[in-house]
Amino acid sequence: MTATLEWNKIMKLADLPKQIGKEVHLKGKSIALFHLSNGDVRAIANSCPHQNGPLAEGIVSGEFVFCPLHDWKISLVTGEVQKPDNGCVEVYETQIKDDYIYIMV
């Protein structure tokens, strides 16, 4: 049996401040949601691959978030950790429709 992906309505775009992460729970997953300064909305798994740091609490810079525990730099586009560190987090597709944020899970 395969899981079916679907769009899930999360919140109003206006309720997600720019450059500040927000943790949301959806279908048993903890997801870090970010509204970037360029207007894009990104969603990634809310757990750093190093020691499970809460990425929603990290510092956002451009299209990256820095883990609050050990400063690992993670792409909000690809989920990849910047070298010399290694790892990757799951990335979720997002869309804005009628001023609401949706995540594909």
UniProtKB/TrEMBL annotation:
Keywords: 2Fe-2S, Iron, Iron-sulfur, Metal-binding, Nitrate assimilation, Oxidoreductase
Family annotation (InterPro entries): Rieske-like_NirD (IPR012748), Rieske_2Fe-2S (IPR017941), Rieske_2Fe-2S_sf (IPR036922)
UniProt-recorded Gene Ontology molecular function terms: 2 iron, 2 sulfur cluster binding; metal ion binding; monooxygenase activity; nitrite reductase [NAD(P)H] activity; oxidoreductase activity, acting on paired donors, with incorporation or reduction of molecular oxygen
The species this protein was found in: Niallia alba
Transmembrane domains' residue ranges: none
Gene3D superfamilies membership: Rieske [2Fe-2S] iron-sulphur domain
UniProt keyword Oxidoreductase present: yes
NCBIfam families: nirD_assim_sml
Name under which the protein is recorded: Nitrite reductase small subunit NirD
Pfam annotation, one family: Rieske_2
Record carries keyword rRNA processing: no
Coiled-coil regions, chain positions: none
